[in-house]
């Protein structure tokens, strides 16, 4: 069974994942050790270490990590590509009869790895034709067509959101199925248990502020400068559109561009990290399968191991039936 450690940033997911992987490795005796699979979108990037709170190699306790440092900072990340590569890692780990411990706060990446989630391709010709129709006929005409072909999709996508309406119609034409048939289902592709880390808002806000202080002291500004191109205020190869949006990097780039002072950029990193944590909690808080634990508990490792053992024994409550803590979502 796959063990996934999820939840908002700054709750200690990486440390718990290392603890679990180490203990579960020792529990196998002569068997293969546990291995960690990253599910943080920005830890995929080489060189983006401090700002993503990536665990340094020397502190990984000899545990193999997958899906870290697999992209250059100028490349664009793709959830579909991640799904294919990370699922191949899970297959290889399973073939070695090892335990996979997934860790990350990027909700869509976690779902893409663990759940039934299809990523239909694109067709430039179909999309161009639909976009042309949107210009000539208007977005409401396309929305009416979507309502006829897939009422559920039309109900969740407003007529003013032409981009999503076009994408939905493109998927319908390419696949021959309703757009909603390709949306994620809360259904694991292989046995898994998700352990969520939660803490009260005041505590999390303090953790975020402390993390940003440590990142600044560790050289976040210098890291961004090394990665950013001269046109972005740096000396490096450049940050692509995806990497440049990462919290911590985006704000420093705006400082380099003269839009903010250093103090303003630093304050924005704190504020945007807190905002990210709320968003992550909202995402994971909607999944009734997550087993929530107090991130500040002195017995956190043992509590998490108890969840894993209960899952292995098939003794976890059904989704929605067990106690769920979602203090940040309240």
Task: Tell me what the structure shows.
Helix content is 47%, strand content 8%. The longest helix has 24 residues. The chain is globular.
Sequence-ordered SSE layout with sheet pairings:
Elements: E1 2-6, H1 13-27, E2 35-38, E3 65-66, H2 79-95, E4 100-103, H3 107-114, H4 124-137, H5 139-149, H6 151-156, H7 162-175, E5 192-198, H8 201-218, H9 220-227, H10 249-256, H11 262-285, E6 291-294, H12 300-312
Parallel strand pairs: 1-4, 1-5, 2-3, 2-4, 5-6
Q: Mean pLDDT, nearest integer?
A: 93
Largest sheet: 6 strands, parallel
Please trace the helix and strand order, writing H or E for each element: EHEEHEHHHHHEHHHHEH
What gap, in angstroms, lies between the N and C termini? 31 Å
Q: Return residue spans where pLDDT drops below 50 for at least 5 consecutive residues.
A: none
Strand order of the largest sheet: 3-2-4-1-5-6
DSSP E strands, number: 6
As a whole number of angstroms, the C-alpha radius of gyration is: 21 Å
